[in-house]
Design brief:
This protein is an alpha/beta fold. It has one domain: 4-Layer Sandwich (Nitrilase/N-carbamoyl-D-aminoacid amidohydrolase), CATH 3.60.110.10.
Amino acid sequence: MEGNRAVKVALGIPRQSLRWTLDETLSAVEAITGTAAAEGADLVLFPELAITPGDNTDDPRHDLPLGQPIPGKVTDCLASAARVHTVHLGIGMLERDGDSLYDAAVLFRPAGDIELKYRRIQPQWHGRNADPQVYRQGDEVLIASTALGRFCFAICGDLFDDGIVARIRESAADYVLWPIARNFSDGSFNQERWDREEEPAYVAAAASTGATTLMVNRLVDPASSDYPGFGGALVVSGKGAVVARWPLGKPGVLYVDVCRSVQS
């Protein structure tokens, strides 16, 4: 990246219904991407499982059809959105590789090709008794060196694992893209509880990377899920300062200008 040129980031939070078809889910993502590009965004980032029209249940009969190959038809559509709107596009999805599933995230270049594919390393995206031949993890912290800077992904619980965080710090990433899918067990969108109990831990986890961290949480329509993700977003500097935040339960786009100098 030349100097410390600001990067305009858009954290997209659609109000995702798990009753939508895959095409409806893609349409919501594509609409936000177009809006963000019109606002001058360089990078648009969506939550964990943002393109997955359902929740995994640890039952392969239910879950395998939710997964998508990477590359495949769905990533072709997302690549087209990145190319048409000339943005970097990052998004979380359930990846199917044969008869195995991964909690994954993909970063597309503005030209439309895949810059980076990441598979979550920390295993708590599924239950302890889930079939390990189906529900699998990645093992690599990967870096994408782009015109905007050096990016890596972490997904949800990855940043609460000291070993993974140490590997991210060693990678010297400028930015950590952190899509998550967090909910409360009572299904509430309790802002006061988040502010008091949760946000400080998430800020500390982000700061532990030493990089500017972009966190965006899945927002799910409560009518479509018993345990809906409650949304929200945070941008945290490498020094632990909250640069920007987005409230729980509110769909929309958080825009923020960031640069490597935010860390210092």
